[in-house]
Design brief:
The protein has 637 residues and is α/β, with parallel strands linked by helices. Helices cover 39% and strands 18% of the residues.
């Protein structure tokens, strides 16, 4: 269970109705298979020991006695395997029969959780046989053991923080007041549901959404184990639709009618971090009436089967990416529309460099003007060639400005900067930070003054990745009057520009595709002897595909440096070697801490996703915090 990952299994095995011995054999076989695969939590369907569809056979002592013996046998197979096993069984006590989840580990029954909400509508007739869970916990004798009994039981691994499990059964999830709400409030981070949900048209989609949203609402992992082959088909069919979800995302699910063992690795550290970050008032302090039962989880062995997206900010290609791109561009442009209207700005002034960020900012500005019913000619698009500007980027800037109908302005900064060098006594042949930043600040001065002259606003072009790394000149490109790209990471900028290129088509698409193919550069140093870009950003600070990965998991998820490194190795296997990943991860932490002072005073800018570094919203960090702790942990890898 390294880095908070716990391998779990949702198991649907073939059964025969009322054939307890047959079912027990298959359950034990599945337990052994899941443990062999590294699972530390295996969940079976509702009433699987005898079958959900036993009907009035539930009143037969022979059946109940057989189930009781079977539970002892199943419990025995958990001895020494280090896995929590949960099976569904009918349990009789005090003249009542309960539909229960029986929780076992290391040869012991840890507790029995009865179903709270008993359905009695449509095809369900459970109240004929079963009673709802008592309001308070007590004890019960089952499988030759006296164990805790009640709906408020939480099973807690003593050796794995966050590995805390609570149970609900089928209808409990479908009802308005699910027991899992209280379970989560009391600290359970994994909710299991033993279910026997018959299959009807459209139900699988509803079931999936229900599990997904419950895991998101409760910031938990949710394991849904559904009955399948062998249940009676007298009136219904069961599809074994198993689902494993985590914090609002479905990690994996089985196809209906494909019974078997479904595995995934749940990240309990992620759940823990998310609860602390977002909902501390909801979780914790609500343990009244709960019984906490400890167990020891087995040591993790084998590789984690879960994969991590290389582009955490970018959806998979296809309809979702198209829909997301349109939504983000709309959010950006609507934010700008409000600012333009509120300030009664006559123009929008934007510096266009021929690079990705300024292209996106110009596209967003054009959208905003169109939505406001204003002429694109009120967009003052300025190219400001300097010592590092290449013919390619300048020409692409001019082509894009003309295609979008903006007003074109070209203001060379060379003479102004050379004069500035004389004023401050700087050698123009010394290509240092003064040489570079003087150009960036001169450009910002031009834009600000043009905005004053035309009654407009300067539109910022810097993106989220640059903010994270501090890759901006303080009071240069760092500053604007409204920053439309400030929460858009570089890897997403590329997809937004590509989407808009294909939407616009024609000459606009052609120039945007050429911009997409251009090396990322601030163009502050002279070109090479062939007139091509010499200063390449990713050679200096590292690949943005890595930095955006680090940004998401280190800052948004709050993971340790070691865990981020581990995940990056998994995600970029075959693309970057371990030494390269570690080198740029160290650089990320160094720059992120050292450059906070730039983020502490950034201009207003619209939030588009779950990660933003605005000091007014999502990220508050002292400018003089140090990265020593984080870097020392990387040094020890």
């Amino acid at each position: 269970m390294q880095f908070g990952f716990v391998k779990v299994c949702s198991a649907t095995v073939p059964i025969r109705v009322a054939d307890v011995k047959f079912n027990t054999k298959n359950i034990i076989s599945a337990v052994k298979a899941s443990v062999s695969a590294g699972s530390r939590l295996t969940v079976f369907p509702e009433l699987c020991v005898c079958g959900y569809t036993c009907g009035d056979l539930f009143n037969q002592s022979a059946l109940l006695d057989g189930v009781n013996s079977a539970l002892s046998e199943i419990c025995g197979c958990t001895k020494g395997v280090g896995s929590l096993v949960i099976v569904g069984a009918p349990i009789a006590d005090g003249g009542r029969l309960y539909n229960c989840a029986v929780v076992m580990s290391d040869g012991k029954i840890l507790g029995v959780v009865p179903k709270t909400l008993i359905p009695n509508y449509g095809e369900f007739y459970e109240r004929r046989h079963f009673s709802p869970a008592p309001k308070e916990n007590s004890t019960i004798k089952v499988g030759g053991q006296t164990v805790p009994f009640g709906s408020k039981l939480i099973f807690k691994a003593v050796n794995v923080p966050g590995f805390t499990v609570a149970c609900e059964i089928c209808e409990d999830l479908w009802a308005p007041a699910s027991p899992s709400v209280a379970h989560a409030q009391a600290g359970a981070e994994i909710i299991v549901n033993l279910s026997c949900s018959d299959e009807t048209v459209g139900k699988a989609e509803y079931r999936r959404d229900l599990v997904k949203m419950q895991s998101g609402k409760l910031v938990c992992a949710y394991i849904y184990s559904d009955a399948g082959d062998g249940e009676s088909t007298t009136d219904m069919v069961y599809a074994g639709h198993n689902i494993i979800a985590e914090n609002g995302s479905v990690l994996c699910e089985s196809k209906p009618f494909e019974n078997g063992l479904l595995y995934s690795d749940i990240d309990v550290e992620l759940i823990d971090n998310e609860r602390r970050r977002t909902s501390s008032s909801f979780f914790g302090g609500c343990e009244e009436g709960y019984t906490f039962i400890e167990f020891k989880a087995g040591e993790a062995d084998g590789e984690i089967s879960r994969s991590f997206p290389r582009l955490p900010f970018v959806p998979e290609a296809g309809a979702e990416l198209t829909e997301r791109s349109e939504l983000i561009l709309s959010i950006q442009s609507k934010g700008l529309e409000k600012r333009l209207s509120h300030t009664n700005a006559k123009t929008a002034v934007i510096g266009v460099s021929g690079g990705l960020d300024s292209a996106l900012a110009l596209l967003v500005t054009a959208r905003a003007f169109k939505s406001l019913g204003r002429e694109p000619s009120d967009i003052i698009a300025v190219t400001m060639p300097g010592f590092g500007t290449t013919g390619k980027t300048k020409n692409n800037s001019l082509k894009l400005i003309r295609e979008l109908g903006a007003t074109e302005r070209t203001v060379s900064i060379k003479k102004s900067v050379l004069q500035h060098f004389k004023d401050i006594g700087h050698d123009e042949k010394t290509y240092d930070v003064t040489y570079e930043n003087s150009q960036a600040r001169t450009r910002t001065l031009i834009l600000m003054d043009l905005a004053n002259k035309t009654g407009g606003l300067v539109i910022g072009t810097g993106d989220l990745s640059e903010l994270a790394l501090g890759w901006a000149t303080y009071n240069g490109d760092h500053m604007s009057m409204y920053a439309v790209n400030s929460s858009v990471p570089k890897t997403l900028v590329k997809h937004l520009v590509k989407y808009e290129a294909e939407r616009l088509g024609g000459a606009a698409e052609k120039v945007l595709k050429d911009i997409l193919a251009t090396e990322i550069s601030p163009e502050l140093l002279p070109p090479d002897k062939d007139g091509k870009i010499a200063q390449k950003t990713e050679d200096l600070v590292g690949p943005y595909i890595l930095h955006d990965f680090f940004l998401y998991y280190a800052i948004r998820r709050g993971f340790s440096p070691e865990k981020v490194f581990f995940m990056a190795k998994c995600a970029f296997k075959g693309e970057f070697d371990d030494e390269t990943i570690l080198k740029w991860l160290k650089n990320f932490y160094k720059r992120f801490f050292a450059q906070q002072f730039k983020r502490s005073c950034v201009p207003d800018g619209v939030k588009v996703g779950s990660v933003t570094l605005s000091p007014r919203g999502d990220w508050r960090m002292p400018s003089d915090a140090v990265a020593t702790l984080w870097l020392s942990r990387l040094e020890n890898l």
